[in-house]
Design brief:
The protein is α+β, with helices and mostly antiparallel strands and about 120 residues long. Helix content is about 35%, strand content about 25%. Strand 2 and strand 3 form a beta hairpin.
Length: about 120
């Protein structure tokens, strides 16, 4: 039985985003990406979180994408690199909602979008 959960407060410069593709509102995700960034005093990424759902047998935290981000200044180039890593980490299957190649590309696009939105929130934009 869980009696307590402690969640550390992020620094003052933190942001997150969840990007979900669904057939209709409230439907299960066809592809989804969550991103969280924390920035240090110089604006560099000090902590990063990237997770995928609906594109592997279980939800997946993409540690390799996080490693690409930490220590970098937020920007399109590093977001694209992390998105490529996330796309390679995905294991989508062909089904009635789309091919595995198409879903992998959506992971790539949604990862860039989620990271950009998280960075904008962390920067106060």
């Amino acid at each position: 039985m869980v009696t307590e959960v402690r969640i550390p407060m992020p620094s003052g410069r933190a942001g997150g985003s969840y990007q979900k593709l669904e057939r209709k509102v409230g439907d299960y995700a066809t592809v989804a990406v969550a991103a969280h960034l924390e920035l240090d005093a110089d604006g560099a990424i000090s902590k990063a979180g990237v997770a995928l759902t609906a594109v592997a047998p279980v939800n997946r935290k993409v540690n390799a994408a996080e490693e690409v981000l930490v220590g970098s200044q937020p920007g399109e180039a590093v977001f694209a690199e992390a998105a490529e890593v996330a796309a390679h980490a995905a294991e989508p299957r062909d089904d009635v909602r789309g091919t595995s190649d198409w879903k992998r590309n959506v992971v790539r696009v949604f990862t860039r979008r989620a990271l950009a939105a998280a960075a904008a929130q962390a920067q106060g934009s």
